[in-house]
Design a protein that fits this description.
The chain is mainly α. It has one domain: MFS general substrate transporter like domains (Growth Hormone, Chain: A). It is 79% helix and 0% strand.
């Protein structure tokens, strides 16, 4: 197979930055939109918001392996162009209920936003495994280049989330429902960039034309991967709890409660909320860059234990701050915890690359596992985050994070046992 030219990698990395920015901004704008709907009398709340937000991630969970496998056999460019166009259709449809009626009914909101999230999830399901597959294609035989493009991919993802966290509330404050039109234009720009600069490459020549479901499952159910999945899903559930619409609804909503400082603290202050979220995600991104100097040099299992523990430390700091503890005590705990947990995804992707080394012809399918765990985790995080936020507001989100991190630590313990068995040399006959 002729590898795509290097400019293809650069184009998809920039497109990934645009996609992540629009996606994060859209998620936060959706939270602001639901705040407006509740003020207009529509019976929406954090649990409904969590369920509707989770629909897109559920679609990504189901569709990603199929899309990744299809890109192995049909070429990647058509999927890379189609993904942002689907997401554009979803984001522009999101406020459709308010364009139909000045005070939309709950049923209309659920139907329109649900369909929008389906389209957005389809776009994400196609984009992630196809992009990761193309980056692996462009770096075959060059481990140095592979490390660079993988790091840039992670940086574009986290940097896009940071930009989106800043842009989402600000855009909604300035443009209202037209925010979703502006974000659709960003998605279309990503599609145009990909179409113009990603070369058309032939599908994998040795790949089967139409693999059966059983063949796909045999690739995905390796013991090393299965043992790690619960931990990866739990960590993505933590991300789904915090880096989605839920946090906007809690911090900028109308609900206040005695003893907690953060719920409703940014009501009417979109600029302040954008600044806080942007600084948080930017710091998280810089921590990922710092971890790049350690990932690969340290054993994977201890790194995963350490990074998941960071989520507990950060949550403890947030609980203290929400309850009025001195910032001199709470902020260092949050900073240390965030630094530690930022290393999880690079370590997890390194582990996935180790597992997938024997399945080069099914590279897109293997990379689809990344979207499966992201989708499953974000569905879980959105739904549980909605339930815990409705129960205990900000405290609920922090306590949920600690519980999910505990589940991840148990899974990593099981994974360590499997890794020892897999790597144990066979006895001599």
């Amino acid at each position: 197979m002729t590898a795509p030219r290097p400019r293809g990698a650069a184009a998809v990395i920039v497109a990934q930055l645009l996609l992540r920015t629009a996606s994060a901004a859209g998620a936060l704008a959706l939270g602001s939109y639901f705040v407006d709907l509740s003020r207009q009398g529509t019976s929406v709340g954090p649990l409904l918001l969590g369920i509707l937000s989770g629909i897109g991630f559920l679609v990504e969970l189901v569709l990603a392996p199929v899309a990744g496998s299809a890109s192995d056999r049909r070429g990647r460019k058509v999927f890379l162009v189609a993904a942002p166009l689907l997401a554009a259709a979803g984001v522009i449809l999101t406020p459709g209920a308010s364009w139909i009626a000045a005070a939309p009914s709950l049923v209309l909101v659920v139907v329109v936003v649900g369909i929008a999230r389906l389209l957005d999830g389809a776009g994400a399901a196609i984009s992630a495994p196809t992009t990761l597959g193309l980056l692996a294609d462009t770096s075959d035989g060059d481990r140095g280049r592979r490390g660079r493009v993988t790091s840039l991919y992670e940086l574009s993802s986290s940097g896009g989330i940071a930009l989106g966290a800043v842009a989402g509330p600000l855009l909604y404050a300035a443009l209202g429902l037209w925010t979703f039109v502006a974000l659709a234009a960003v998605y279309v720009g990503a599609a145009v960039l990909t179409f113009a600069f990603v070369p058309t490459a032939a599908p994998t020549p040795t790949a089967r034309t139409s693999p059966s479901l059983g063949e796909r499952l045999r690739v995905l159910v390796q013991p090393r991967l299965l043992a790690f999945l619960p931990a990866w899903i739990a960590v993505n559930a933590i991300l789904g709890t915090w880096v989605t619409s839920q946090i906007t609804f809690v911090l900028a909503g109308d609900t206040r409660v005695d003893g907690q400082l953060f719920p409703g603290a940014f009501r009417g202050d979109e600029a302040g909320l954008s600044l806080v979220l942007g600084v948080y995600v930017l710091f998280f991104s810089l921590c990922i860059v710092a971890w790049a100097f350690f990932i690969g040099r340290l054993p994977t299992v201890p790194v995963l234990f350490l990074t998941v523990s960071g989520a507990m430390i950060a949550s403890a700091g947030l609980l203290l701050a929400n309850r009025g503890a001195p910032l001199a005590l709470a902020l260092p705990l949050v900073a240390v915890g965030v630094f530690l947990e930022a290393g999880f995804t690079p370590a997890a992707l390194t582990h996935l690359s180790d597992i997938s080394a024997e399945f080069r012809d099914d590279r897109g399918l293997i990379m689809g596992a990344y979207s499966v765990v992201v989708g499953a985790g974000y569905v879980l995080g959105n739904v549980l985050g909605g339930a815990f936020a409705q129960w205990l507001l900000f405290d609920g989100l922090a306590l949920l994070t600690i519980g999910l991190a505990a589940i991840a630590l148990v899974s990593i313990g099981a994974m360590a046992v499997v890794e020892k068995r897999v790597r144990r040399p066979l006895p001599r006959s």
